[in-house]
Amino acid sequence: MEKAEQPMKKGGYSSGDIQLQYASNNAAADLKVDTESNIAATVSVADIIPSSKTIASLKYPNYDSGKVVFHSSIYNYLGTPTFALGAEAAYETSSRKLTKYTAGITVTKPDSGASITLGDKGDTLTESFIHYVDQSKRSAAGGEIARKFSTNHNTFTVGGSYALDDLMLVKFKLNNHGALGLFCSPKS
Known about the structure:
0% of the residues lie in helices and 63% in strands. By secondary structure, the chain is mainly beta. The protein has a 13-stranded antiparallel sheet with strand order 1-2-3-4-5-6-7-8-9-10-11-12-13, with no helix packed on it.
């Protein structure tokens, strides 16, 4: 059912938000002002350091809501195998603390890949491996070991994927706690 538009009346109240956006090759800015004079600003800049992205946001009049997030991934290609080193960090001005930091290393070869990631502010160490069973990469098998230091808890997961055709991919995983996952989707 459609809502009937009411004609504007003299002395009536109307409201609206104003939003400005700017984007260039490696930077973007977004500024929004609402009817209650709240201002929200976000600025993001890519490639301050090669392959990095920095995001800063601020809400006025609540200065404590501001935060700066820095995402960085540095990729180095050595011959045929690919080696990647990445890091991500988030700093919140309200608490004056790093709220997130993660670092990882990945090695990829034509038929396999392995990675080690230290996440959850250094509380979780994850090692994973994938091996493509065939050259067309239609079938893959993999495993993951995750260690959460604060709880002294380990999770072991094995899984695989198979491309039914050029459009459909089926994935499964099973961990040592009995959790089974099955996923079927169009290939992207």
